[in-house]
Design a protein that fits this description.
The protein is α+β, with helices and mostly antiparallel strands. It has helices spanning 49-60, 90-94, 156-164, 168-177, 185-197, 200-203, 212-223, 228-233, 237-260, 291-303, 357-365; strands spanning 10-15, 37-45, 67-69, 78-86, 101-109, 120-128, 140-141, 272-273, 276-281, 324-327, 329-330, 333-340, 344-352. The chain has three domains: 1-138 and 331-369, TruD, catalytic domain (Pseudouridine synthase, 2-Layer Sandwich); 149-237, Hypothetical Protein Yqey, Chain: A, domain1 (Orthogonal Bundle), CATH 1.10.1510.30; 260-329, no CATH class. Strand 12 and strand 13 (344-352) form a beta hairpin. Helix 3 (156-164) packs across helix 9 (237-260) and helix 9 packs across helix 10 (291-303).
């Protein structure tokens, strides 16, 4: 199975809380309004969300902290999403011109767009080497997709694990040192040199300028070599939260893997929401299941030498997490087969927020992405 050979093969259109699909290429009507937040549609190609907003902030000469959004979107894709910017005007936005980015102002608002402020996303995906396609039956295992853990560097959950275990030096070293053949060669060589030399001040001379988060860590450690908590605090709070959430996601996937072996039907002891059994996003207040489902959840914790109280992170309290429950399977809505050739299909479907299209594709075609 081949996907994302070009951005046009993977289109992600956000579905707003009122059910509107933010269609690619469709103009947006300016709605006026008042308030300190400018709400706009960000349409992008070959940009990740954070990178696009960082560039917009630079062009607008404002802090990137002014921007917020409902959910991140894929990089190698064409995507749409709502964004809000504090104290930015429609006129300022209209002057920003960036290749492969289109900005469409919607209105002024008294409230920002916040994480989770969406119904879901509509996906239009071209799949090569498709082979046999299973019919979506509404019971797709709700795994977190690989992009949750980092596409070119799958270390996000590992950093999160170190933070949860309050191993802050390890968290910093994983983020700085771990290299992969899938990343840029300059990045990989810089990481390998730093892992060998461990000279943070010198690393500022050769680490690529675009690795801004790594350079933030290096800059702090060059001045305070053993202050790993301080170094982590130099990173954006959303990024630090993403590390912890990725580890929660990794553990959820482990529960779901074990659960698949005995089925996804509701069992005695399950915690059920809207008729669907749920699995834990572990946290210090999460309710665990009982019976066989509870045994599986506790087994995953035991395998990781964890207790739910470990999600109270004393050294960085703002990263502590109460936890929640997540459906173990999800429904695929509005499925359409748009094109079908000998070894190629184009499909469209909608998913609720927090659900991964790559997971659905793996299920439909029986192949791991």
């Amino acid at each position: 199975m081949r996907i994302k050979e070009k951005p046009e093969d993977f289109i992600v259109e956000e579905i707003t809380p009122d059910g509107e699909v933010l269609e690619v290429g469709k103009p947006v009507t300016w709605r006026g309004g008042d308030g300190d937040y400018l709400v706009f549609v960000l349409e992008k190609k070959n940009w990740n969300t954070m990178g696009a907003l960082r560039e917009i902030a630079i062009r607008a000469r404002v802090s990137k902290k002014r921007f917020s959004f409902a959910g991140t979107k894929d990089r190698r894709a064409i995507t749409t999403q709502r964004v809000s910017a504090w104290k930015l005007t429609k006129e300022q936005l209209s002057k920003i011109k960036i290749k492969d980015i289109t900005l469409k102002p919607i209105c002024y608002s008294k409230e920002p767009v916040v994480l989770g402020d969406l119904v879901g996303n509509r996906f239009t995906i071209s799949v090569g080497d498709a082979g046999h396609m299973r019919k979506p039956d509404g019971r797709v295992p709700n795994f977190f997709g690989p992009q949750r853990f980092g596409e070119s560097r799958p270390i996000t959950h590992l950093v999160g694990k170190a933070i949860v275990n309050e191993q802050y030096q390890l968290a910093v070293e994983i983020y700085l040192y771990e290299s992969f053949r899938t990343e840029r060669e300059d990045d990989r060589l810089a990481r390998e040199r730093l892992a060998k030399e461990k000279d943070y001040a010198e690393a500022l001379n050769y680490f690529p300028k675009y690795l801004k988060y790594e350079r933030s860590l290096l800059g702090h450690l060059a001045k305070a070599q053993n202050d790993y908590v301080g170094a982590l605090n130099a990173l954006p709070r959303n990024l630090l939260l993403m590390f912890v959430h990725a580890y929660q996601s990794y553990l959820f996937n482990k529960v779901l893997e074990k659960r698949q072996k005995i089925g996804l039907d509701i069992m005695k002891g399950d915690i059920v929401e809207n008729g669907v059994p749920t699995g834990p996003l572990f946290g210090y207040e999460v309710m665990l299941a009982t019976g066989k489902p509870g045994e599986i959840e506790r087994e995953v914790l035991s395998d990781e030498w964890l207790d739910i109280e470990d999600f109270r992170i004393n050294g960085m309290p703002f990263l502590s997490t109460k936890g929640s429950r997540r459906p173990l399977y999800t429904a695929v809505k509005d499925f359409q087969l748009l094109e079908k050739a000998k070894d190629h299909v184009k499909i469209r479907f909608s998913l609720p927020k927090g659900t991964y299209a790559t997971t659905v594709l793996s299920y439909l075609f029986g192949k791991t992405i």
